[in-house]
Amino acid sequence: MTTVTETKLEFAKLGSRIGAEIRGLELSADLSPGTVAQIREALSVHKALVFREANVLTDEDQVRFASHFGPLTNAHPTVASVEGKPAVLPVDSENGSANNWHTDVTFVVNPPQASTLRSITLPEYGGETLIASSAGAYRDLPDELRNFADTLWAIHTNDYDYSRPKNLEHANAEERRKEFTRIHFETAHPVVRVHPLTGERGLFIGGFAQRLRIVGLSNTESKDILRILQAYITRPENVVRVNWEPNQLVLFDNRITQHYAPDNYDGQPRKLNRVTIAGDVPVGVDGRSSTSIKGDSSTYSETVVVN
């Protein structure tokens, strides 16, 4: 009887707190359960994984890879998918750049557990993706601020004030804004989320978190608190800068990271495709779960129950 030995994957760290990469791992074919388990374990440890020379050449390859980690969401609750491919969202510089820190789709009650990005068209320079560890940020907080953050809840919405100077907006920004907000979502999430697999605590805020539900505090005071907490997430030691190459895929844990795509490529074409994996309802330190205030996300994604 032949014994099949699972090859141990070797991920090289990109930083002490977040990020690891592996080169040449074939992702376009079906993966063995053992390989999937190793990738999931590495994701829990490193938060963001970079697969270089991964031979993920088509949308179908990307969808197949992402499906190993759970049911997929639709491309987006309001934005159109790649034609004929309901799980694939085009992230195209022609439609503007996501140059603000955010966690994907946190304005719904069941945000994706993880996101995959695949390189399609890359600029000659720039166009990186920055990914930050909200777990590292939480650990950095002084005890008094950490204990305070544990008690807070934030309202996340897709219909917020896009306060950006008109001269810096993309040409079709108004049309994109109308598409993005055609359904109004609001959800109350804990500011500190407990990761369902690792038990780690991370700051769960970002671009869609607009105001804190704190009795006795004004909107101005709430924004100041968010600003202070967000500054811990974007400390350089909590951030990995992913330089894109052709035929590259990135997988990151959406439950305990934020990301940012700097607009630093002088209008050159830049296109990635995104596929996201359905997630659970966030839970705070006190055991309470997030609640939907406006908008029904059931047609966007099923809710995963983590045992």
What do these coordinates show?
The chain has six helices and 16 strands. The protein is α+β, with helices and mostly antiparallel strands. The chain has a domain of 210 residues: Double-stranded beta-helix. Helix 3 packs across helix 6.
Report a brief summary of the structure.
The protein is of the alpha+beta class and 307 residues long.
Task: Round the Cα radius of gyration to an integer and report it.
Answer: 19 Å
**Average predicted local confidence, pLDDT:** 90
Instruction: Output the number of helix runs.
Output: 6
Total DSSP E strands: 16
Proportion of strand residues: 15-25%
- Name given to the CATH architecture of the domain at 76-242 and 252-294: 4-Layer Sandwich
Spell out the helices and strands N to C: EEHEHEEEHHEHEEEEHEEEEE
| Helix-residue proportion | 10-25%
List the helices and strands and how they pair.
Layout: E1 12-13, E2 20-23, H1 33-46, E3 48-52, H2 59-67, E4 89-92, E5 114-121, E6 129-133, H3 134-140, H4 143-149, E7 153-157, H5 173-180, E8 186-190, E9 192-194, E10 201-203, E11 209-212, H6 219-233, E12 239-242, E13 249-253, E14 257-260, E15 271-277, E16 291-294
